[in-house]
Amino acid sequence: MPLLERDCRRDEVEEHKKNLPLSGEPEDYIEAYLMEIEELKRRGKLDRYLSEFGLRLNIEDLFFAGNETTSNTVRWCVLFLICHPELQEKLQAEVDNVVGSDRMPSLNDRNRMQYTQAFTMEALRLSHLTPLGFPHAATEDVEIAGFRFPKETMFLANVRRCHMNPKFWPDPEKFEPERFLNPDGSVKTKVPSFIPFSFGKRQCMGESLALMELFLFMAIFMQKFTFRTTTGLPHPKAEGVESITWKPPKPFQFLVEERKH
Ligand code: HEM
């Protein structure tokens, strides 16, 4: 039996099973899933799509899809901060104005912290963490724009090309959060050629969660710390590890200084 099938997340699921049967609202995803299995079993309607093995794979998927992506985007954000100390000052001014230093930033502050949101979006654009998205295959023969694609043709979303296309992004290599702001300072909601979470039926399920997390990371970092290079000079260039599937930033050193309010 493959290792994944035998061991993956078994302990978490077994731990949750000790709380069953539950009567009230589920407290987390695992409880909700297990309760649904129980309910379908009771009604004689359990099919092969819901199972404990499926649950364990789902948990593994969520950890994989949500963990590396978000943590690498935070690393990109820190790298862009040390490349652009002047933008870091703008972010700090925004959090100081909106939140101050007596309480932690929260998601309720998000709508009033447009520059922080725009900075994060620009980091997502320029890092294009998944340069070609994830591969998908046609489930049947299709014709698109006059081209015929047989069943099982592999399709890739060219995220890198969309994010670096000068038609949509003048001077595309430049890190410029203002691209994501309307003239009145509000954040743009529909941005053509911006697909960090891909698009269509299989687009990232964690997009809203990721944007919430990234906002909180940036707002809290900027309230509490200043990030600098070890030389005191701006970091020369934000470079990633070049690969067609995955683009984390190249390793870099930095100093974290606590802000005195
Ligand atoms: C900055 C953070 C993130 C980025 C850049 C990102 C990006 C992506 C991309 C490009 C895809 C592929 C979509 C496709 O197949 O066309 C994807 C899929 C997915 N993401 Fe994310 N993601 C992020 C965070 C998260 C988080 C926090 C979660 C959940 C905890 C998550 C869960 C998923 C799942 C479950 C899928 C598969 C969706 C499916 O195949 O139907 N992601 N993500």
TrEMBL record:
The keyword Metal-binding appears for this protein: yes
Subcellular compartments: Endoplasmic reticulum membrane; Microsome membrane
Keywords, sorted A to Z: Endoplasmic reticulum, Heme, Iron, Membrane, Metal-binding, Microsome, Monooxygenase, Oxidoreductase
Organism the protein comes from: Darwinula stevensoni
Primary role: May be involved in the metabolism of insect hormones and in the breakdown of synthetic insecticides.
Similarity field: Belongs to the cytochrome P450 family.
Positions bound to heme: C204
Presence of the UniProt keyword RNA-binding in the record: no
GO MF annotation: an example: oxidoreductase activity, acting on paired donors, with incorporation or reduction of molecular oxygen, reduced flavin or flavoprotein as one donor, and incorporation of one atom of oxygen
Cofactor: heme
One of the Pfam families matching this protein, by short name: p450
Entry membrane topology: Peripheral membrane protein
Protein name listed in UniProt: Cytochrome P450
Biological processes per GO annotation: organic acid metabolic process; xenobiotic metabolic process
Any one GO CC term of the record: endoplasmic reticulum membrane
